Amino acid sequence: MDDVLSFAVFLLTGVPLIAMLSVLTPLLRLLRIFPRSLSIDEQSLAGKVVIVTGCNTGIGLQTAKLLAHKGAAVVMACRSVEKAAAAAAATSPGAGSFHPIELDLADLKSVTRFVRSFEDQFGASHLHALVCNAGVPAKLGTRTVQGFEMAFGVSFIGHFALVLELLPRLKRCGGRVVTLSSVMHRFAQPGCSANWNHAAFDTYPMHLRVFTSSYSDAKSAMVLLAVALRARGIASSAVNPGAAAVPCVAPIISAEPLEHLYLSPYWVPSRLPVLDLAGPFVGAFPNLSKPEQAGAQGVALDAERLWSWGETVLQASHDREAQSQLGRAS
């Protein structure tokens, strides 16, 4: 029933929205409201170490290419080391270098293993930037290893666990963090009243499920994560890359027609070039920063509430794992 309702909502709201944007976007381009590209300065990143998650394809790979071209040592944190290595081999690193290390954000144990592997290669103090790029589209019924809803578990919880482990290194190096959000954050629960358990375990009541998903809540959480990191002395920005035809939003052919139709909100925009509404929207330009627009104090409180919730959820997950290991040992 929830699948049918989700698809009906898309037909009633998504299709008219896409049609409207198809007409308005060319006009907005002419008015330079949505710039097609941003100028990149030529500052060298030689000697800098940067981690980019989910960068064997798509936006992450393009980010890794640019950073390496400017001289950075780019750690390609990907689920498949083989695919990351193949992508690196097919790309000239310019003055920099690529270093694939396995990281599966759908498994908190993999996050810990990644940090250990990173320390083995780069030491405990070398980390100048972290780009939290990896993510997956919402797909009903899928879970992470620890039981979180997949979109929220990968996009936020996995990244949050990674940030916590790397935070001391980032502080020592004066490092910075970039989190990838989306215009979909506007469809998330209001931060002041958000029940993050709904997002983490896909337990939305019907009145929220109509317009909210774990995906949109994850993108809102990534904005708030940037705000919380700023409060901890870390230079952090959340950015909106815009619609892009990347593999993670490609249609998944399934024996269940309704499952395929459910993915169409993600598939359609990625195939319409007129909808490339790309551009930074938080943190990249101070005068466009969402916290300043929405009221910095309220957003900061929302960010701290999310941070506290995240720590509690991770601790509970670790406790359950420890209890499970004790049970198996006995």
From TrEMBL:
Gene Ontology MF term list: oxidoreductase activity
Keywords, in A-Z order: Membrane, Oxidoreductase, Transmembrane, Transmembrane helix
Protein family: Belongs to the short-chain dehydrogenases/reductases (SDR) family.
Source superkingdom: Eukaryota
Classification via Pfam families: adh_short
Entry-linked InterPro entries: NAD(P)-bd_dom_sf, SDR_fam
Segments crossing the lipid bilayer: 6-28
Protein name: Protochlorophyllide reductase
